[in-house]
């Protein structure tokens, strides 16, 4: 007779057993479904079977389980032994004969039967143990003030209550790092969390379980003394995952100006916790920490229209523009606040424009226009985010700048010698003089005439600071004497 079952039945067994546990609690037994008298198809699925139910006590072992099944199916234990004998004969025939074909059907049937019985018996034992633990561990009504919610909680002790399993896991990881030991997870499910020291001979262990139907986890058993060797505890720290490192360093990135590199992370973990991590893991942890504190760059761009709308609402009179490409993706953004527009008439009419690289995920360029107030202090006028410094981006910037500020008497524009800026100012500010930064000029001259760079610096600045044409021409002749190409 064929006796087997599809492994998919295991889940059904669990559900049936849980439903029947209340009725069978006094009997200390578990109900299980059994499939039999079926056939195996080509895909090794058990089909065309009969189903019956059996009750298994908690003290059931493998042999008792076989007896229960045989009694239910009207089989004798002798029949079961005969099946094993058939397997032995088949194996012996296979070993003694190289030519004659051997029928393995009986052997395969018995092997499948044994595998399934072992699988079901393990599920049953685990289910009964879990039910016993739930019966032993009463549900506790806990004051919210006693529940641990802080991931960086320092100490662990018996009967502590955590808001959920993830909080307990994070606290435990920090605890292992700070106390210089490692642990391994022996069991982790929705209702229980069991860990032990990495050394199997060590007595350190912790078991926590769920508090009834809540998400809270309570430490039910905790042996805090280590009996393992020190070199095992100080081996590579497996609890120092990137997720835990993120939790340790994320406060470093609350200030946008803070520079905290992967090298700094490697150094601090080694110094503060005696944990050695690779640069690659430190770099990944840094990226995750920045994302956790400041959010994802893509999500920030998605919120840009809402941000600009609220910026205009809270600063009425400002000039704000947002431009997207044909696919609706971000392209340019221009902002000139009302406060800057009101201060514009009272500042020195020399507009300084420049661009700088954005060190973000998607890069880009920040274009800025500034001016000096009556006291010579920097006064911001407008800023613009673009993809790169090209003809289109600078022309778009000056177009929006002119709409926001217009033209003033004696106004002039100063920038570096970027060709796109020169083209844009000629197109949109043809009536306004355009000058160049002396700093950029000197930098270009030094790179081109390295041999005489120390000789012409003072003379160059004297020429750029000249207030009369006569003095300027005199200083330029001095430059010619140093190098006519200047």
Gap between N and C termini: 105 Å
Largest sheet, strands/sense/barrel: 7 strands, mixed
Q: What is the general shape? A: elongated
Number of domains: 5
State the secondary-structure class: alpha+beta
Mean pLDDT across residues: 79
Low-confidence stretches: 1-10, 16-27, 94-107
Q: Give the spatial strand order of the biggest sheet.
A: 11-12-15-14-13-16-17
Structure description:
The protein is α+β, with helices and mostly antiparallel strands and 486 residues long. It has helices at residues 9-24, 62-72, 77-96, 105-136, 165-178, 230-233, 242-249, 262-273, 279-294, 297-302, 304-314, 338-343, 391-405, 419-428, 438-448, 453-464, 469-482; strands at residues 29-36, 39-40, 46-47, 50-57, 147-148, 161-162, 183-188, 192-197, 205-210, 217-223, 319-324, 330-336, 348-357, 365-372, 378-386, 412-415, 434-436. A 7-stranded mixed sheet has the order 11-12-15-14-13-16-17, sandwiched between helices. Strands 5-6-10-9-8-7 form a 6-stranded mixed sheet. It has a two-stranded antiparallel sheet with strand order 1-4. A hairpin with a 5-residue loop joins strand 11 and strand 12. 19% of the residues are buried. Mean pLDDT is 79; it is low at 1-10, 16-27 and 94-107.
In short:
The protein has 486 residues and is an alpha+beta fold. Helix content is 45%, strand content 20%.
What are the key terms here?
486 residues, alpha+beta, 5 domains, seven-stranded mixed sheet
Topology:
Blueprint: H1 9-24, E1 29-36, E2 39-40, E3 46-47, E4 50-57, H2 62-72, H3 77-96, H4 105-136, E5 147-148, E6 161-162, H5 165-178, E7 183-188, E8 192-197, E9 205-210, E10 217-223, H6 230-233, H7 242-249, H8 262-273, H9 279-294, H10 297-302, H11 304-314, E11 319-324, E12 330-336, H12 338-343, E13 348-357, E14 365-372, E15 378-386, H13 391-405, E16 412-415, H14 419-428, E17 434-436, H15 438-448, H16 453-464, H17 469-482
Parallel strand pairs: 5-6, 13-16, 16-17
Antiparallel strand pairs: 1-4, 2-3, 6-10, 7-8, 8-9, 9-10, 11-12, 12-15, 13-14, 14-15
Helix pairs in contact: 1-4, 7-9, 8-9, 13-14, 15-16, 16-17
